[in-house]
Amino acid sequence: MNNKKFLAAVVGLGLVTLSACGSSSSGAEGSGSADKSVTLVSHDSWAVSKNVLADFEKKSGYKVKVLEDGDAGQAVNKAILTKDNPQGDVFFGVDNTLLSRALDNGLFQSYEAKGADTITSGYRVDGDKVTPIDTGDICVNYDKAYFTEHKLQPPTSYDDLIKPAYKNLLVTENASTSSPGLGFLLGSAAQYGDDGWEGYWTKLKANGVKVVDGWEQAYNEEFSGSAGGKKAKGDRPLVVSYASSPPAEVIYADPKPKTAPTGVADGTCFRQIEYAGLLSNAKNTKGGKALLDFLLTKEFQQDMPLNMFVYPVVEGASVPAEFTEYGPQAKDPETMDPAKIAEHRDDWVKSWTSLVLK
């Protein structure tokens, strides 16, 4: 999921960013090293345990190089612009909110990854252009300390967010540049319908919602409840983030608190699914296919929860107890048919931009 490595930067622990990983031999940037290295292009929340990656490199013979390209929306747009001469071989991190844009622009070539038949049925897609890798929920998070101090019940629904009690408390991301921001917009459209979501956002704007470019700024700078937020003296106790953010606040805190300092407004969640695919015109298609196969192994799938704070999609992949204890999946998240997202997304974002940002 997009931008959930927040505590790696804040407390300097645990999560492994691999942007500089890989072969340093001469010609590594060009096609001459394609048989020795494979490049993964991703948003900036990619993370994997060193030993898990090393195991893949040893078995496959490929060195993995990772190019992180910002927030998911930015990364997808850049990948589309460079599709004729792609920056890498595999793209990871396009989600169900942006999938049709990637497919319509011919970003991927066909490949059915080994293990695709083990993906839980609800997450499978038609065709073989992309492979589901993980899932999670975009939700409003709240700072428990703030609401305790102000003797105020935290919100539990979309409706609550437009009440006077929560005026000037919420920060969200730009729906045109950020996948959680877009997910929150789509969740509101699913909740209020084609004819009702604009009225909802009119009320949300009047209630003081703040919009910033991406998740890093929203969570680590504006939100009062994150480790980053406290450092940056953020003053917004409500933020659009993920259902998996509270366990991250516990697992990578030092000292580790007994309970999560943040909570999730369960009635504000939108189900996100992330995909990976073999880039069109990839220089190393063989290595790219091997890397896609690796992303569906139980070894990688079971490594994801405590690294990228997402849930696996492969049947039988286990999730650590501490992950589910502090961040269970939403019980009844909003969802939307991919075809409807494809049909309305761009118009909705255009309308949202005019309504909220101008």
Explain the layout of strands and helices.
Layout: H1 6-11, E1 37-42, H2 50-60, E2 63-68, H3 72-81, E3 90-95, H4 99-104, E4 108-109, E5 131-143, H5 144-149, E6 170-173, H6 179-192, H7 197-206, E7 210-212, H8 215-222, H9 227-232, E8 238-242, H10 245-251, E9 262-264, E10 270-279, H11 285-295, H12 298-301, H13 305-308, E11 311-312, H14 321-326, H15 338-357
Parallel strand pairs: 1-2, 1-3, 6-7, 6-8
Antiparallel strand pairs: 3-10, 4-10, 5-8, 5-9, 5-10, 5-11
Helix pairs in contact: 6-7, 7-15
Report on the structure:
- Strands 1, 2, 3, 4, 5, 6, 7, 8, 9, 10 and 11 form an 11-stranded mixed sheet that branches.
- This protein has helices at residues 6-11, 50-60, 72-81, 99-104, 144-149, 179-192, 197-206, 215-222, 227-232, 245-251, 285-295, 298-301, 305-308, 321-326, 338-357, and strands spanning 37-42, 63-68, 90-95, 108-109, 131-143, 170-173, 210-212, 238-242, 262-264, 270-279, 311-312.
- The protein is globular.
- The protein is built from 15 helices and 11 strands.
- With 358 residues, it is of the alpha/beta class.
- β1 (37-42), α2 and β2 (63-68) form a beta-alpha-beta unit.
- The longest helix has 20 residues, at 338-357.
- Mean pLDDT is 88; it is low at 1-34.
In this structure, how is the largest beta sheet organized?
Answer: 11 strands, mixed
First and last CA, distance: 29 Å
Number of DSSP E strands: 11
Estimated structural class: alpha/beta
Q: What would you call the shape? A: globular
Query: Quick check: average pLDDT?
Result: 88
